[in-house]
Amino acid sequence: MQASPPLSNLQLELLKVFSRNVPDEDLKEIKTMLSNYFAQKAANLADDVWEEEGLTEEKMTEWRQTHLRTAYKVRQKGHTQS
Fold it and tell me: For the chain, how far is it from start to end, CA to CA, in angstroms?
């Protein structure tokens, strides 16, 4: 039998805070708040990287138009691979 990893500090804190049942509507709002919190943190980190790297809209446009995939040889019809 595989042991479960220990709970994170966030999980433990949430267990303490929500040791009682909450109405479904409250649960939905709490989940939305948590999602928004982590989405905002991710957006802030992305903004930091954007600034640190000196990125610009022009650079993003250039990257979108850059072909970075590996070119593969096209097999000719009737040719079998050995």
Answer: 46
